[in-house]
């Protein structure tokens, strides 16, 4: 199994909490997700710190705005050298295209590798009722697949989706398309606010490129033991 397949979400809001968690996880985790909780609290500092520690970083800010703003916003994040950035596919094809093009141009101009750019399809916390509440008439699965196809057409490297939709996206978008899946709950761990969940093994078997795990690691009495158990489960699933 590749050592980048487990991404631990650093969903904390102080530098000391983040440092303690990264230290406790040690060599077991090489990839971290920095989301809005940590980024809004500390700006890019933790991303730079993680990169300096030799970790890879998925900067999960889910950009969703007009095409020009998203393109420029992504370029502003480039200085932090994240390995993965994301936008929300709900911004549509033109927005995603503008983001991908601006990011590639900026990376090329600066002579640095371009981060992978992926699109959030439908949040894993949403269920059918939430979806209908927004006025949608089709299913979440259909919307996720449609959005994955649009992301691919826009030149994105992949998507964020729930493990439940992964098989179909893999079939449609091919082996090189990144599918990053949150909503991961090992057996016996509660769902919290997540709705479309699956076990680590289930997600890997469905064809996920990488899985994102937050509270099942950070909230465990021994986060390192929890991460190692998840890695073992992923290994066995392959
Ligand atoms: O604690 P838990 O494992 O549920 O955390 C999942 C992480 O993945 C959170 O940081 C959340 O913001 C993120 N995420 C998600 N669903 C998406 C995109 C990102 O849960 N569609």
TrEMBL record:
Catalytic machinery residues: 62 (proton donor)
Domain Orotidine 5'-phosphate decarboxylase: 5-230
Positions that bind substrate: 11, 33, 60-69, 124, 185, 194, 214-215
UniProt cross-references to InterPro entries, sorted A to Z: Aldolase_TIM, OMPdecase, OMPdecase_AS, OMPdecase_bac, OMPdeCOase_dom, RibuloseP-bd_barrel
EC top class, as a word: lyase
Pathway connected to this protein: Pyrimidine metabolism; UMP biosynthesis via de novo pathway; UMP from orotate: step 2/2
Function of the molecule: Catalyzes the decarboxylation of orotidine 5'-monophosphate (OMP) to uridine 5'-monophosphate (UMP).
Record-given protein name: Orotidine 5'-phosphate decarboxylase
